[in-house]
Amino acid sequence: MSDLENPEVPTMRRPWKRRLAAAALAAAAACGIAACGAAESGPPRLTWYINPDSGGQAEIARRCTEAAGGRYSIAVAQLPRESAAQREQLVRRLAANDSSIDIMSLDPPYIPEFSEAKLLAPVPPDLADRVTQGVVESAVTGASWRGRLVTVPFWANTQLLWYRRSMVAGTGLDLSQPVTWDQLIEATQAKGSQFAVQGKRAEALTVWLNALVSSAGGAIITDPSVDDPAGVRLGLADPPATEAGRVMKELTDAGIGGPSLSTAGEDANVASFEKGEAILMINWPFVWPRANESAAEGTLGAEVPGDYGWALYPRLRPDLPSAPPYGGINLGVGAFSRHPDLAYEATECITSAANQTYYFVENGNPAARESVYGDPAVLQAFPMAPVILQSLRQAAPRPQTAYYSEVSQSVQREYHPTSGIDPAATGAATAALIQEVLAKKELL
Amino acid sequence: MSTTAIPPAAPAAPAPARHRGRLSDRSRAERRLGWTLAGPAFAVMLLVTAYPILQAVYDSLFDYRLTDPDTRHFTGLTNYGVILTDGIWWTALAVTLFITVVTVAVELVLGFALALVMVKAWRRLRAVVRAAILIPYAVITVVSAFAWQYAFAPDSGFVNQWFDWVPGVAADTDWFGGTWSALLVICVTEIWKTTPFISLLLLAGLAQVPEVLQEAAKVDGATWWQRMRRVTLPNMKAAIMVALLFRSLDAFRIFDSIFVMTGGANNTESVAFLAYRQTISRLEIGMGSAVSVMLFLCVILICALFIKGFKVDLSAARGERS
Amino acid sequence: MSTREKWLWVVGGVLIVVYALFPVGWIVSLSLKSSADIANGRFLPTVVSWENYALILTGDASELFLPALRNSFGICLIATAISCVLSMFAAYAIARLDFRGKKVILSTALAVAIFPVISIVTPLFNVWRQVGLYDTWPGLIIPYLSLTLPISIWTLSAFFREIPWEMEQAAQVDGATTWQAFRKVIVPLAAPGVFTTAIIAFFIAWNDFAYGISLTSTSAARPVPAALGLFSGASQFEAPNGPVAAAAVLVTIPVVVLVLLFQRRIVAGLTNGAVKG
Which residue intervals make up region (Disordered) (chain B) (predicted)? Predict the structure, then answer.
């Protein structure tokens, strides 16, 4: 260490001052970039907490502000990407009696919890009739709790079976007819290709399990025991759930889920489907506008969108129609909003057929109103719109309970990774875990 | 000569023994001034930590869910019983300890090497090296977590393409799909980000090694390695222990990287992340507070272990970071 | 030392530079990839594209990013300023005065520094929502003090011990009071140390994530690290790697600038500023 000579001597000469000035200048410049906004005054300003999208909700907010003619204006505030995180944020704010939350874009499974905790302003009865007229049944169910409408249906999502026409050609699959999971797994395996499903430890996994259980004629929760969480009855140890576990396990063991099955979500799935690594995929309709945009930009082969085929969610039993997932967004009005009446007025504008059509066409989020599916603009942008509507009519909601978060996280914990599923035991173990967690005898 | 080793608390001269009644006017005035000056900082520190942790201890004795405040009731130590008998807690503790031990051990070796290079590097290069080494320290943990996550991701990353010649790595290796590979990436991220800090502490320690001893050893014909073992390291013991202590405590509280990279999936959950999930995600304030208190106790335990077990002289520990 | 040995150390130095800059270079490179290019499996973009920057500065994500940037700057600067002022007084007392309780203050600072943030986030959240500090600037500035104060006190005490206090005594002999001596003589001498401490405190506040995600929920106070997790791709199901990388680069620029301008003082500050020349 002979030449260790104090490298760190604080000097107090002038360069230091000059640097300080430079730093101050940099900070000031950065402050300028961030441009401090000024407060506004005028008509009541409603804040709409939206889930991230491609700008559609912001545009609808603008349109409805315009249509309100100065009675109110709507400003949007963005929530996190994951629906569980959206719920966290909203619940935390509402638990703080936050009056700045006027309208919320809510993921349906969390609606019972919001309703039970009295975080939603009651829906005016006359409005309830108007906003549910001509709305697909699964969306009305998803917007209700204890038999009453507690939120306003906005858009309704569902998953389809997507396939690459050219690539399934030689597999012997007839996708114009209902197909079963077993057939699809077998065909993919025979071809040595991939079948993209969401095996990630996330809400998507619960979505998958729920659709499988429902398609087999069962349910994750058989009795929600609305007033006493300890009385919840679960159907996870019943034969339909065993069947569901078997399919998940077999798909995994067949090695067709792709290399990142245990971390793949909707996004990773669509990427491998676009590349042609997967010939089959379970996914939401956003994959269609995405393919068209990429093809238009030239980042995806121009022929790829034309190669996309779609069909109803696969069946679990050949004799039973499938029960595809139901998703989407419903609008809730915050219990502490200063203008609940105006907020409900605004939700009616937001969910008008015209706005739902716009949102469907521009952002790829399917409407809750059935009439929208006959719109020529929709049919042109989404040739599969009739299939989406049919899928929504068959769709099964995820379990409705005020403890959905606990249920879903328990499912994810036990069913992830899918390679570890034991069809005969995992269901019962999950049911036991959920009971323990609800009784607060175990962590989650 | 370096003054690093002088503890800040040590008075410049031994203070004469004082008794309350015999304080001179001057010392009384000095004491008043001292507390007037230091009091606000002291009060603020207590206010933002002591009060919340006491509140957490209190909350941990209740069954309390934020969305269901009506059923809040006192349950005593039940929450702690639930935690201690739950496998999740022990898994999280094991994962956290694993990350702590691995990262701190690697960082110590790597940080020492960095410190040596910084001492030896060619003078003109020294400023460059020093600036470079500060960059990982200054980069936001979340940013570094995103950078490494994207690098290892099978779709957007390059690691799989670059290292597909390594056995076990293929173009489609899913690093975050398994516990051990995910932990490896998490450790790499942590090591990259925090080694500079440890190396700077060690650099300061190197400066404390008496030059005379080095020269004497050289004259005696000691090899580089012998000098390192007999002279350098023993004289740096205090600095090394302090660096170890702070990094261990820091590593034990790991949260940001896990949040970003795996979200706790595949058994990669740390204790801090577990606490976060119970309170902030699940809104189980009672249970979550109990986990928080347990985390706090663990940190105290580690600290006590170092101070009592390894006799770390904390008064030499300055310039630590939170 | 021999030329060969010298070159060995130079190589070591170059390796360190590569080590330190490589991930930063990667995130810069990633931020310059267009969304179609992002999965090209290579380190560098095929074509340099500014679309991610456009997205976060003027596009859809700007409503998320720009307020977060403003919050981060505002909250961190204020927290840094407050902790500097408070710790300046405290460190002066510790370095300069001899009084009972000095050890208590230093030990408290140490204890606060090792405190697990997660442990106090929940109670703070509960109190904040009751007193209306949730999702506000002060609601973050106050907890940030728990991060910045301890290190500020320790670092500054170290700096202050290096100051030639004879000058203060000289001033006092000239008839100045302790307070005047502090203000007129010591403050100018202490400024560089204070400034260094401020940089380090700023780094720490800038780095916070746990408080940011737990105590905020809108662009009213959400800082950048917390906002990074909220970016979305073209739809809610698509990963936002590109915009996140671009935002990550932008928040890294200030700290890199600070590091480049003040590297010597930061090292001095981190290693106590006490390796005397």
Answer: 1-23
Give, in words, the CATH class of C62-230: mainly alpha
Q: What is the mean pLDDT of residues A429-443?
A: 88
Is the Cβ–Cβ distance between A296 and A160 less than 8 Å?
Answer: no
Query: Does A278 lie in the same domain as A341?
Result: no
Average pLDDT (C19-41) is: 88
Facing residue for B249 by CB, picked from C16, C114, C203: C114
From residue A170, alpha-carbon distances to A270, A279, A283, C3 in Å are 22, 11, 23, 69
Residue B21 placed within a domain = no
A213 and A148 in a single domain? The answer is no
A52 contact residues in C (CB cutoff 8 A)? 230-232, 236
ipTM comes to 0.90
Closest CA–CA distance from residue C100 to any residue of chain A (Å) = 31
B163 CB near a chain C CB, below 8 Å? no
Report how many domains make up chain A.
Answer: 2
By the 8 A CB rule, do C224 and C68 touch? Answer: yes
Inter-chain CB proximity A262 and B155 less than 8 Å: no
Mean pLDDT of chain C: 85
Q: Which domain holds residue B115?
A: 56-316
Percentage of chain B beyond pLDDT 90 is 36
pLDDT digits (tens, 9 = 90+) for B170-199: 877 888 888 999 999 999 999 999 999 899
Decide if pLDDT at C233 tops 80. no
Same structural domain for residues A299 and A182?
A: yes
Can you give the pTM of this predicted structure? 0.83
- What's the number of domains chain B is made of? 1
Lowest-confidence region among B16-20, B131-135, B313-317, C36-40:
B16-20
Q: What is the mean pLDDT of residues B262-268?
A: 83
Alpha helices in B170-210 (DSSP H): 179-206
Do residues A150 and A183 both lie within one domain? no
Domain spans of chain C?
Answer: 62-230
Give the pLDDT confidence of B75-116 residue by residue, as tens digits: 999 999 999 999 899 999 999 999 999 999 999 999 999 988
SS3 state at A43: coil
* Contact call for residues C214 and C125 (beta carbons, < 8 A): yes
* Beta carbons of B45 and C101 less than 8 Å apart: no
Q: Which residues constitute the domain of residue A192?
A: 158-325+401-438
Are residues A241 and A136 part of one domain? no
Hey, is the C-beta of A11 within 8 angstroms of any chain B C-beta? Answer: no
The answer to whether residue A28 scores a pLDDT higher than 60 is: no
Task: Enumerate chain B positions whose Cβ falls within 8 A of a Cβ in A.
Answer: 63, 66-68, 82-83, 86, 88-89, 118-120, 126, 130, 154-155, 170, 172-174, 176-177, 206-207, 209, 211, 214-215, 218, 232, 263, 265-266, 274, 277-278, 280-284, 287, 291
**Residue B123 to residues A3, A6, A325, A405, C263: CA-CA distances in angstroms?**
10, 12, 65, 59, 15
**Chain B / chain C CB contacts < 8 angstroms:** 357
